[in-house]
Amino acid sequence: MPYPESMRASLKLLEATRAERLREVMPRMDPEEKTALLQEFHPDFRAEGMRPVRVGPNTGDRVPNEFAEQLEARSRIDPDAFDLSQIDYDVDVLVIGGGGGGSTAALIAQEHGASVLLATKLRHGDSNTTMAEGGIAAASHTHDSPYLHYLDTLGGGRYVNKPDLVQALVLDAPLVLDWLLKLGVMFDREPDGRLLCSLAGGQSRKRIHSAKDYSGLEMMRVLRDECRNRQIPVVEFSPAVELIKDEHGQCAGAILYNFDTGRYLVVRARTVVLATGASVASTSWAFPRPITTGRPPTVWSLPTGPAPACCTWTPSSTIPAGRPGRNRCWAGSVRRHSAGPEPTW
Ligand SMILES: Cc1cc2nc3c(=O)[nH]c(=O)nc-3n(C[C@H](O)[C@H](O)[C@H](O)COP(=O)(O)OP(=O)(O)OC[C@H]3O[C@@H](n4cnc5c(N)ncnc54)[C@H](O)[C@@H]3O)c2cc1C
To answer: Is 199 left (phi over 0), alpha (psi -120 to 50) or beta?
Structure first.
């Protein structure tokens, strides 16, 4: 498909400045310069776009206004009218979310002998994972180590990320990479067969493993196939709208809403895995304006993704006891405790 007219001028400018840009050395910024740039352009640093959450375990956390509104919204379920005695699915593990995280959780749970149901809002694989282009970071080469990955990740997260999460990320990354390779993900390779690694922002070593520019799509292709091959039941177009608690206050399942039939589905599960992705998409205002450098303008925007799960607000209901109570239970949201610019890098 030819480029639209509106992009041609931009392309010409890109071509005209390519040689100059190839020679250009970007001066390193000191922490004060970085902070000034972030405060000017990054939505997370705009005070008026954030406010504290008023309810639930995230009370007091400053999050984007839109996200706070979602967390505080009323349930679409009327606890007095809802019948929990009709159980549609009864499984060991309910995985909510059909991206890379959810599919991986479903596969691992099944490998350990659990009966699994994967419920997802759209099609299995409609997710941020499918849109990820760059690749997956893992210290897989001899010039690298999880320790260096850890330091880079803490620095990339401006030292506000949770060290134990970062530790889990960097230690698991080589194992997960190996697992994905064994399942059949076709990561790029050097002519001699070694895995190709490239650099990413904030990384001191080449550790990004890609599949051309469709890395996430390639991973999702294999993970989804694997779920199919292992006959893991998948309920599509059925977002979880509530979590359900048992009489001990433990999460015991979820209520799904089937978009096709308009019916609610009750799932009873011993374990519920929330793998509904990030919620940055709820920031509607994105980066305020293009960063203009004399080069073709770069328009920044936050990744678009699925809406956060509604399951952070739930009626205190029991299965199979019938009438749900009125108090709500909550699943805390972990915001900005991920690794860095990309949670999985
Ligand atoms: C354009 C883009 C490029 C990226 N590039 C990179 C990269 O190069 N490297 C990198 O490491 N990361 C990258 N990322 C980030 C990375 O893709 C995500 O961090 C990662 O895929 C998250 O995986 P996940 O399974 O947790 O969530 P997702 O892949 O977002 O999956 C969440 C799933 O949950 C479903 N869902 C949501 N709400 C509900 C609900 N209530 N009930 C049921 N299902 C629900 C969604 O439909 C979806 O299927 C990129 C992201 C984007 C958008």
So the answer is: beta
Contact 86, 266 (CB under 8 A): yes
pTM of the model: 0.82
Is 288 near ligand 1, meaning CB less than 6 Å away?
no
Atom in ligand 1 nearest the alpha carbon of residue 126 = 49
Bridge partners of residue 243, in order along the sequence: 254
Domains and CATH numbers, the chain: 31-125+214-338 (3.50.50.60), 134-213 (no CATH)
User: Exposed, middle or buried, 114 (CB in 10 Å: 0-12/13-18/19+)?
Assistant: middle
Burial code of 218-252, b = ≥16 C-beta within 10 A, e = fewer? bbbbbbbebbeeeebebbbbbbbbbbbbbeeeebb
pLDDT confidence tier of residue 329, bands split at 50, 70 and 90: low
Instruction: Give the pLDDT score at 344.
Output: 46
Question: What is the tens place of the pLDDT at every residue in 47-88?
Answer: 888 899 999 888 999 888 888 998 898 888 888 889 999 999
Residue where the block lists tokens 């070694």: 194
In tens, the pLDDT along 193-246 reads: 999 999 998 899 999 999 999 999 999 999 999 999 999 999 999 999 999 988
Q: Is the CB of 240 under 6 A from ligand 1?
A: yes
Picking from 345, 331, 219, the residue whose alpha carbon sits closest to that of residue 275 is: 331
Task: Tell whether ligand 1 has an atom less than 6 A from the beta carbon of residue 156.
Answer: no
Beta bridge partners of 117: 94
